[in-house]
Write a structure and sequence with these properties.
With about 200 residues, the protein is of the alpha/beta class. The protein contains 6 helices and 9 strands; from the N terminus they run βαββαβαββαββαβα. The termini are close together.
């Protein structure tokens, strides 16, 4: 089971979490409304320090200018939430994870049939809220060659059941492994989550 730890904010956090061998680290960029948002320059510095794990740029309705900055910073994958002009995909030079909030699936077939898309992420209606959702709303994409990423309200106590129910390729967590005051990641919770997801 692949594991993505999202909302990385500091170099120290990235190094400690990288030592626990997750498959992906996610960085929220160009979205100041999020408490997890960091600057592209800060992210670029962190990327150089954790070469062993894939780095994912988590964006909301990104512009082409922002995407080019993400590529220049040497991110491995672009994760897209929100509205997006599909005509821009031809100008993207890194793989894409397209996020869908439960019930909002009108562009699903486009991304299933797009070669640059490597994964489809299914999340709660309010991303970042720490809430789960009805997994019956997730479409069957087994016949596609895309990875299914499951997100939304996961933590070490519910991730096993979620994996048994959905059978995703990867699980994605952010608020479920944060410190109680919501600032930064709790490394013990991260370790517990990774162990639970892979057991």
């Amino acid at each position: 089971m692949e594991v993505k730890i999202c909302g990385i904010r500091t170099l120290d956090e990235a190094k400690k979490i990288s030592d626990l061998n997750p498959d992906y680290l996610g960085f929220v960029l160009f979205f100041p409304k999020s408490k997890r948002n960091i600057s592209i320059d800060a992210a670029a510095t962190i990327i150089k320090a954790v070469p062993a794990v894939k780095k994912v740029a988590v964006t909301v309705s990104p512009t082409l200018e922002q995407i080019k900055k993400i590529e220049y910073a040497r991110f491995d994958i672009l994760q897209i939430h929100g509205d997006f002009d599909k005509s821009l995909i031809k100008d993207i030079n890194i793989p894409i994870i397209r996020a869908f909030n439960s019930g909002n699936l009108e562009d699903l077939s486009f991304y299933i049939n797009n070669d640059k898309t490597i994964g489809l992420l299914f999340d709660a209606p309010d991303p970042g809220s720490g809430k789960t959702f009805d997994y019956n709303m997730i479409p069957d994409i087994k016949d596609s060659n895309k990875k299914l990423f499951l997100s939304g309200g996961l933590n070490s106590s519910n991730v096993r059941k979620a994996i048994q129910t959905v059978n995703p390729h990867a699980v994605d967590v952010s608020s479920g492994v944060e410190n109680s005051d919501g600032t930064g990641k709790d490394i013990i919770l991260v370790e517990e989550f990774i162990k639970a997801a892979r057991s």
